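Q: Hi! First time doing this. I have a protein sequence and I read that you can turn it into a structure. Is that right? Here it is:
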Amino acid sequence: MVKVRQEKIEKVRELKEKLDSAKAFYLCNYTGLTVAEITELRRRLREKGAILKVVKNTTLYFALKEKNLEDVEKFIPGPTAVLFAMEDEIEPLKAAFDYSKEISKFSFKAGWLDGKIFGPEEINIIAKLPTKKELQAQVVGALNAPIFKLVYSLNWPIQALVFALEQIRKQKEEVK
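A: Yes, that's right. Below is the predicted 3D structure, encoded as structure tokens:
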């Protein structure tokens, strides 16, 4: 009979709770990062409402198994850090992706987003998508554009009339 220590069971439980509470999570390869680089990455992610945690692969495996995400197992080998996106699903991914381009040492192994598992190529594509806030700003801009055009179109004849009257006034003053 295999005897599992209570502290290991507790670590799996804690990791599973974090996985459950995150809106999305991404498995990352942090090989080659210095302490200063990983600290800078964690600082940037914290600003985006995310947490980067280095985990043991066996702990991650059992936590994913409890969460019924055993398909992620094939992405686990090698040093693994888990990026937990707690507030926004995409912004922390974009921040980590941008930082990975700066230092060329950080990469994504897989990710879980909206109940689906994505591989590294798909994660890189998702990281290039606009964030939720950027999309909201684009929608607001698209909705406002016709209104501004209408206001400008209605206002222009009045402005043109005022400009013409002003020119006539100046010409009459010059004649006097």
